[in-house]
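Quick log. Single chain, no ligands specified.
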Amino acid sequence: MTDRPLISVIIPCYNAERTLLRTLESVRAQTYRPIEIFAVDDASRDGTLHLLREQEAAGVQVIAQPSNSGAAAARNAAIAAAQGEFLAFVDADDEWYPDKLERQLQLIANNPAVTMVGCRCEVLRPDGVRIPVNPQREPPVGHDAWKTLLHHSYYVPSTLMARAAVLRDLGGFDARLRAGEDDQDVCIRLALAGEVDFVDATLVTMHELPDSLSRTHLSREHETVLPMILNHCRSLAPRLSRAELCTILGARYTQIGRNVYPSSPGPGFWLLLKAIGHGAEPFGNLRYLFTASPWSQRLKRLLQRLRPGTAQHTFGT
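-> predicted structure:
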């Protein structure tokens, strides 16, 4: 027997048969014990559930969702069943470094005010190149981390450890948010409930996949992420100065406007104008409006075809 706290590891899975075993191996390789592992199949259409059933004998607790309900609902199903004092989340295409849980637990267990602990992560591209995530940004920590998390996204679920009782009191993840914005929302709410701490080390590898949720929904952030942020800003307006609110909105309009502009010029255009109106990077956003517009891209392609040396190849067939 041990008096060390139990950690519940939660893995939402959807069509993850190609990557799931790699993720599970990284969880089983953790230097910290005791842990329990929950894997939630979100009505996958491939062999994910069959693969999970094979892992039950090795201690994986499998929950099968009756219908596809999204990652937030899948995580909530495991949260309801988890026995651990702390919860750690990992997506079924990500990996943990072996000391990830141990290093985060040292921070959250020793400070009752801490509701959430993050860490650094990196993206592994198909060509083998590793790219740090948010290397130039200071991690949101402390009592006011929620203000920074309103300003920009920083943490992803695979980097998080949270206090189970606090997350349950908050109602878990918002299952209505199904386009990847649920993780930003839960981080803001956890930060509002206490302090955020951070292990300043890379403990997570995210594998770049063409069909990942973040890539798939990037061009829809004006319909998904932005309404969630605006709702938080409205409810938290009494706790924000006018300057803080203007800075947060300007940053979000810039980030989301640039993300959606290439594929949705209309919404992106108006968001970038709003960003400029809030004083956010006026020259940079104006330049982006011209250089990244679909019309500018078409003109660039036309000029490339008309360049000497390319005209004969292009038009001589």
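Residues 242-260 form the longest helix (19 residues).
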